[in-house]
Structure formats: C-alpha cells, structure tokens
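Milestone 3.1: sequence recovery, worked example.
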C-alpha cells in the first residue's frame, strides 16, 4: 500500500483529492480486483488521509472483503456515482486525475458535481510505483512465466498434421485450466506457416502442414500478474530460407537480452536488435517496437522502443520480442520476459528457443 507516498504527493502539490480510476491501479493500491466494464470505479484519497472506494453496488461486498480501513461506497445503476461519492466528501477545488484513463464525459461530470477549478494529471503517479517489482511480485511473475512455458509444451505435444489453429488454441487454453490457471494474459495467438506474417493475426481454420513453423504467442495470469511468451516451433523440417529468418530473429533476441543491465536506455536495447535485423536486409519487416512493460497488465510501462530514452533500473520487468514478417511467406517472433537485476537480468520465460 502506497498511502504514505500518495498523501505526501497530495500535500506537496496542494491538491484536495486524487481519484484513481484505472482498475489495475485501484487493485494495486487497495487489493480490490474489479472489472467494472462500462461502470465507474474510483479509489479516492483526500488531503486528510481519508480513503474511499466507489464501486457498483454488485461489487460492494467483495470490495469490503478485499480492503481494510477504506470506506467502500456502492452505487446503483440508477444513481449518478459522483453524486453518491459526494455525500461522503466535500467540494474539491484542486483534483488529481488519471487523464490517460478518465473519459472526457466522466471528467466533466466530476468537475460539475464537485465544482473543480483546477486539475492535475497524475497518470504517471501509480505507474511509477508499479514499474519496479518487489520480491513478492517477482515470485508471482516467475510463476506466471512458468505456466506460460507449460502452455507452449502443451501446444508442442498436440501438434499433428491437419489440426487447425483454433483447435490447437482451444487445447492450450483448456489444458492449462487443469493447472488452476483461469485467465490468459490476452487472446492466445496460434498461427501456422505464412499466416504468422501477420504479427497479431487471428487464429482460424488454417490446417497444419508438414515442414512449417507454428507461431505461439500467449501468456497466463497468476494471482494478478501476467506473463507473455512467443515461440516459433519447427514442425517437421522447414526450408532453408525460413530457418535463416528464424536464426536471425533468435540472434536479435539473444543479443538484446545479453545487453540488459541497469543504466542503459530502452532505446539502446531496441537499437541492438533492430540493427541486427536491418543489417541483414530485413529492417522493413521488423515493424513494431522491441517490447513492452509487463506486470499486473500484460502491456504497461515501459515502452521498449527507439523513442524511449528512460534508463533500465533494477526491478523493472518487460519483454524482448524482435520479429520479421514477410507477407505470404513467413513470420517469426521470439519473445521473453525479462527482470532487471543489479548487474544484468533474469529471464523469466524458460522454454527452449
């Protein structure tokens, strides 16, 4: 719980109240996990140190069980949630909000209800708390990665000529449930052969043939923390060209991982991998950033790209996932989950490459 740091921030910025509306940030700060869908969810903290969770009425009891010393306020679908919250709080002149998340219409409703005169964007506040994982968080992320490795193994053991992408996807997601994993990090991607040339292609009715690559991009949630792995599995014996592309992507992945240590920039990591692919003549086919942050969200800070000058610090977790995608021919991506240590890194995903 970061209440002390949040309260210091409020007082230093001379704010009356902050409102956190990103569900994962609410969970991080309060231990209350909730997907409100289209409804409003707020964690509010004022300059007196008073805390509130505003949630849909149907989530109220779960919120009370999940939190301690926080006033939980439930509202009905027929009520204006901000009017309900105001019964427990006073007018707010200076308000901190997450502009990255709060919609314009909801912001305008809050401003009208509370007579807000000044707003400060606090989008980066909780992000900066979340970017460095502690020992407990690392343990959970290692377990999430472990189960992602198991998913790849499940897929490999079920490869056969004629199985469709959707059939293999279904097997992976059903079998991992036997390990008490109830939620994938995102919609599992299974692509065969030339279909993998679409980086985020949708699994379909394409049947597996001999002598082609199978791209598997997936992850698991374990106690609130996500993993994300991509492997390209050789089914049979692929052609020389396809194997050369695979080896090139593997080298970009490996060299970027070797370079990970505190003090270098994310842009530098991206450059290492991109230069390897570009110098081999395939730069235009590497059409995305090198990776992304990983934690309670599958995609979070940092953005591992050439534009990100921020420096690596111990405790930050992110992915390294170079790829080459040649339309109608081949698509290769190799992705690992990385934890920055004091003098290098720890690779959380272990499945053979």
């Amino acid at each position: 719980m970061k209440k002390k740091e949040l309260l210091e921030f409020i007082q230093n910025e001379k704010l009356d109240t902050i409102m956190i509306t990103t569900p994962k940030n609410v969970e991080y700060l309060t231990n209350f996990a909730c997907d409100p869908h289209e409804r409003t969810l707020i964690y509010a903290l004022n300059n007196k140190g008073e805390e509130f969770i505003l949630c849909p009425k149907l989530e109220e009891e779960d919120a009370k069980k999940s939190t301690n010393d926080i006033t939980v306020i439930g509202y009905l679908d027929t009520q204006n949630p901000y009017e309900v919250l105001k019964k427990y709080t006073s007018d707010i002149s200076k308000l901190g909000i997450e502009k990255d998340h709060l919609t314009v219409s909801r912001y305008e409703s809050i401003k009208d209800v509370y007579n807000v005169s000044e707003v400060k964007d606090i989008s980066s506040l909780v992000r900066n708390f979340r970017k460095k994982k502690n020992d407990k968080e690392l343990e959970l992320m290692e377990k999430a990665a472990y189960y992602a490795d198991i998913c790849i193994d499940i897929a490999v053991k079920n490869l056969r000529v004629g199985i469709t992408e959707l059939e293999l996807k279904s097997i992976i997601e059903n079998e991992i449930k036997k390990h008490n994993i109830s939620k994938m990090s995102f919609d599992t991607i299974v692509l065969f052969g030339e279909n993998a040339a679409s980086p985020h292609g949708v699994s379909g009715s394409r049947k597996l043939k001999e002598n082609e690559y199978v791209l598997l991009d997936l992850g698991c949630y374990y106690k609130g923390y996500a993993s994300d792995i991509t492997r390209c599995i050789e089914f049979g014996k692929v052609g020389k060209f396809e194997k050369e592309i695979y080896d090139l992507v593997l080298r970009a992945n490996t060299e970027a991982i070797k370079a990970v240590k505190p003090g270098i920039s994310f842009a530098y990591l991206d450059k290492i991998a991109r230069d390897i692919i570009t110098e081999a003549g395939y730069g235009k086919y590497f059409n995305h950033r090198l990776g992304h942050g990983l934690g309670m969200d599958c995609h979070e800070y940092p953005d591992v790209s050439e534009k990100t000058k921020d420096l690596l610090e111990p405790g930050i977790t992110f992915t390294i996932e170079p790829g080459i995608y040649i339309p109608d021919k081949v698509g290769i991506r190799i992705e690992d989950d990385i934890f920055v240590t004091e003098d290098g890194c720890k690779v959380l995903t272990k499945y053979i490459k």
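The chain has a mean pLDDT of 96. Residues 19 and 44 are 4 Å apart (CA to CA).
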